[in-house]
Amino acid sequence: MALHRAERNEPFADERTWHEALLSLTPEHPDGTAWCMIAPLDRPAFMQAPVSEGSLDDWANDRPTPDSLDILVTSKNHDLKRERQSNAQVDDWIFALVSLQTAAPYPGSGNYGVSRMNGGSSSRPGLGVEPTGGPGQRWLRDLRIGLEERPFLVETHGYRDTGGTGLLWLSPWDGKSALGFAALDPFYIEISRRLRLVEEQGRIVARRTSSAGPRILKAEANSRKGNTGDLWTPVERKSGKSLGVSAIGFH
Fold first, then answer.
1. What is the three-class DSSP state of 182?
2. Which of 81, 92, 140, 233 is the most exposed place for a label (fewest CB within 10 A)?
């Protein structure tokens, strides 16, 4: 998204220009608040929408560690122990937020799954090609393909070519409103949960609440069956739906 806005086909070469390019995606927050882990409740924080209510008084306070945000549905605390990351660092919370907000399933009422997945009980696999050179070359290859195929994604999936919503945590979300695909950037990054990170007694903790529906219109997402043009989502040619890997694994 940053490279498209800058009308570039190649990545920036230094930290300063990347910093400026990412800030250009959040013009209403030039101070970088939208990329911070903790921010005032009336403003967006990284992967966290502004709080419409203006208060977290009615939000649950039961996510004290990053691994308590895990998308795995575990009802018992035996095999996989919960809340082990009591000495978590900021990057642990970053990984937890990205995982939950972009790959969450539908575990029950008030917690809806992401649109880039074939239903709330499916999974979101990521498939890519890694050329010689390691992860850096893979990222560069994917970046070039994404920019080259962007017009195709706009045409075939009905996204906005310019002015589309790309970072879905920038706008307030009351848990009831939803966005249609026609309002989105083809590279949109969604959020599936209403939560905010706060500092309590010198530690970061997460506060959360439920929503009345998903952030992306449920009917539109269901009709696409996970086929949203995501660069890393394999699609079954016959059915046109995204691949869901079952318990038997990937064969």
1. helix
2. 81
- Residue 224, pLDDT above cutoff 90: yes
Per-residue pLDDT tens over the stretch 40-78: 999 999 999 999 888 999 998 878 788 888 776 655 666
Domain boundary assignment for the chain: 2-74+84-112+126-224
Q: Is the pTM of this model over 0.85?
A: yes
Give the residue carrying structure tokens 């990545």: 11
Q: Which residues contact 79 (CB under 8 A, 6 or more apart)?
A: none
Q: Write out the E strands in 52-209.
A: 60-63, 165-167, 184-189, 194-200, 203-209
Q: Which residue has the tokens 């009351």?
A: 174
Distance (Å, whole) CA 249 – CA 207: 34
C-beta separation of 178 from 168 below 8 A:
no
